[in-house]
Amino acid sequence: MTQNRNDFTWWGRLVENAVGAYLLNYFTGQTINLYYWRERGLEVDFVIETPRRLWALEVKSGGAGKTPGLSKFCHLYPEAEPMIIGSEGVPLKDFFTCDLRDLLL
Predict the structure, then answer these.
(1) Which domains occur in the chain, in start order?
(2) Paired strand residues for 59
């Protein structure tokens, strides 16, 4: 069976993996921690931690959606800067073509 953008679950996983691969590739060799956060059923797709800053990234590949994990993470870690990539945030095209230093600094 050929999967496509009409399979929203598959498309969401594909986009999330592409964002993760882009981040991992970009930050390789730098003093950056890149990880996933999950607590009691809430999650943040990617957490980027540097010696000076903390970001919480949520990837949205479809329509509008709630981000309770992002809200909870930012409540627990008020120094975290939230960012939505995709729907309602930084467009995917812009994310994949930007220099992440410009986006995150």
Answers:
(1) 8-104 (3.40.1350)
(2) 85
Task: Identify the pLDDT of residue 1.
Answer: 47
DSSP assignment of 36-105 equals EEEETTEEEEEEEE-SS-EEEEEEE-SS----HHHHHHHHH-TT-EEEEEETTSB-HHHHHHS-HHHHH-
Residue the block writes with tokens 């220099």: 99
pLDDT mean for each 10 residues of the chain (105 residues): 72 92 90 93 95 93 82 97 91 92 80
- Side chain identity at residue 47, one-letter code: V
Strands 42-49 vs 33-39: parallel, antiparallel or unpaired: antiparallel
Query: Residue 104 corresponds to which tokens in the numbers above?
Result: 């995150």
| pLDDT number for residue 101 | 84
Planar angle of CA 43, 48, 52, nearest 5 degrees: 135
- What's the pLDDT score for residue 2? 58
